Amino acid sequence: MAIGAASRGYEYIAITDHTKELFIAHGMDEATARKEWAEMDEVAARMPRGFAILRGLEMNLSPEGQGDMDEELLDRIDLVVAAFHSQLRLKDDQTPRYLRAVMNRHVNILAHPRGRRYDVRLGLRADWDVVARAAAQRDMALEIDSWPDRQDLDVENLRAVAAAGTRISIDADAHKAEELGFVGFGLAAAIRAGIAMDRVVNFLPADKLRAWARESTQMARRI
To answer: What domains appear along the chain, each with residue ranges and CATH number?
Structure first.
């Protein structure tokens, strides 16, 4: 994955595997995460000078917005992506669920927010104007998951994100190197929705991305 990212001209890549309570995806516990970090450091040492591999997770969130990893580990990480993976077929308004996730101080990026997948499920309903404004206040990013059957958030809901000035992350959700090309779907959605380039967190250099993630965490403490 690192070689694939470097070949696309990227300066860094974040590895964000699932965490322990997502059993269906064989999510990592804390010990496995630390082992992976050591392996990532070994790979990074063999990469071209200046290329970085960021320590990340896709942390599983409960419907109450709580994560499933120890705080000590989360405080040592570069970037915490988090997502709901359960109760994704509810039909009532889920705005309160999202607001609880926004206030989880460890979360830097809320991944595939609606949880939709083409021909599988419609995804959750929420007032995205409210969610986007709350995320902007906390300086948290919402994700455009560029995987073809997700494309989540979609253009319609991204317009609320653009209006609020909320940060976004455009991610391929790639599970193998050739899938990094999916990012084009997310870029197209961001352009159509009018997202400003300075709102895209993965356009930041790696050091500034790390600094933003730390500040986002501190912002949540102050709200």
So the answer is: 55-222 (3.20.20.140)
Tokens matching residue 155: 């253009």
Per-residue DSSP letter, 19: B
pLDDT at residue number 13: 97
Task: Look at residues 136, 33, 41 and name the one whose alpha carbon lies nearest to residue 75.
Answer: 33
pLDDT at 218: 84
What whole-number distance in Å separates Cα of residue 27 and Cα of residue 74?
15
pTM greater than the 0.85 cutoff: yes
Q: Quick check: 222 pLDDT over 70?
A: no
Going by C-alpha positions, the residue among 77, 1, 73, 8 that lies closest to residue 44 is 1
What integer is the mean pLDDT of 145-166? Answer: 97
Dist CA 171 CA 151 (whole Å): 10
Beta strands per DSSP E along 62-208: 79-84, 109-110, 141-145, 167-171
Rounded Cα–Cα distance for residues 219 and 223 (Å)? 7
Calculate the alpha carbon distances from 136 to 12, 50, 58, 61, 72 in Å: 25, 31, 21, 20, 26
pLDDT digits (tens, 9 = 90+) for 70-93: 999 999 999 999 999 999 999 999
Radius of gyration of the chain from its Cα atoms, rounded to whole angstroms: 16
Task: Extract the tokens encoding 89.
Answer: 């077929």
Helix (H) or strand (E) holding 206: helix 206-222
